[in-house]
Amino acid sequence: MNDQPIEVAIAILYTTDQFLLQLRDNIPGIVYPGCWGLFGGHLEAGEVPEAAVKRELIEEINYSPPSVAQFRSYVNADVIRHVYHAPLTVKLNQLVLGEGLDMGLLTLEEIRQGKGYSEKADQVRPLGSIHQQILLDFIDSTIHNSTI
Fold first, then answer.
1. What is the number of domains present in the chain?
2. pLDDT in tens, 103-133
3. Alpha-carbon Rg of the chain, whole angstroms?
4. Per the confidence metrics, is the pTM higher than 0.85?
């Protein structure tokens, strides 16, 4: 049995005052079903995190950011999350959702509240707790370091 944590690469995509999130499929057994989360996914064998996040963004929303920068990694016994950030340089209607129920631009206030409205679901849905924490950490670091 493999006791090694899985590795994922995820992206914080942002505009001037909003963050792009994916409403995850409502499938039992996946992490944070029916919740808002960051785009990204598992690293393939031999893949480095930066390549994985770029590949996942193309697969999930057909978006290739002009550049990605590493934010930080979040490590626990089960998973290592490599977090990158990049500006969203296209309009939402130029993206093609390839995975998940919906995508949307959430405001800082929605992130702080831990929930956002989905037009497709016609419901307010919660943010996955780790995704909310990552976004709040990123927002806090940008206020202090002017990252974005």
1. 1
2. 999 999 999 999 999 999 999 999 999 999 9
3. 15
4. yes
Phi, psi of 83, deg, nearest 5: -110, 130
Amino acid identity, residue 92?
L
Which residues share a beta bridge with 19?
A: 14, 106
Give 20-72 as a DSSP string. EEEE----TTSSSTTSEE-EEEEPPTT--HHHHHHHHHHHHH----S--EEEE
Contact 101, 24 (CB under 8 A): yes
Please give the residue range of the domain that contains residue 54. 6-145
CATH number of the domain at 68, please.
Answer: 3.90.79.10
Q: Is 117 exposed, middle or buried (0-12, 13-18, 19+ CB in 10 A)?
A: middle
Nearest of 65, 115, 112 to residue 90 by alpha carbon = 65
